Amino acid sequence: MVGARRASWRIVSSIEQKEETRGNADHVSAIKGYRAKIEAELSSICGDILDVLEQKLVPSASAAESKVFYLKMKGDYHRYLAEFRAGDDRKDSAENTLSAYKAAQDIATAELPPTHPIRLGLALNFSVFYYEILNSPDQACTLAKQWLSYQLSILMRPATIMINQPARNQQGLDPQMKN
């Protein structure tokens, strides 16, 4: 439901910009009205979901996986609001996003394995937040690279052990058996 409206908002905003460039004031006026309607729907849906997350799901979550999932989701929905809001509303949504993602990251780092899918999804969405909302592509890339290099180091450990194991095994063999 939210994904379709976010996609609609992006398309309508793009069309609005094109029509403004062309100087079609009548079209721009109609498009702005439709965009405002989409924004109101998004605000309502995101607000309802955030209410459930903040009042019920986050406080009642006991398992680390659930906490991280709900906090990530909370950050995601605040990020969706920040995508179309302006001024202080955008700033508030961005701050709420950052707070939720950081809380989720703290728990994920302490309690979830590095390759856990929710932890990986959090890293991706956190990077998107830095790129799209904070307009900080350098920070987004740095964060994504840190997570990726960390994940690769974790995933490569078994391969390194397997590569080194035959050499270790040969060291203990009887010299006559090596020939």
TrEMBL record:
SMART domains: 14_3_3 (SM00101). Residues 1-173 form the 14-3-3 domain. Signal peptide: none annotated. InterPro entries: 14-3-3, 14-3-3_dom_sf, 14-3-3_domain. It comes from the Eukaryota. Belongs to the 14-3-3 family. This is 14-3-3 protein. It comes from Parasponia andersonii.
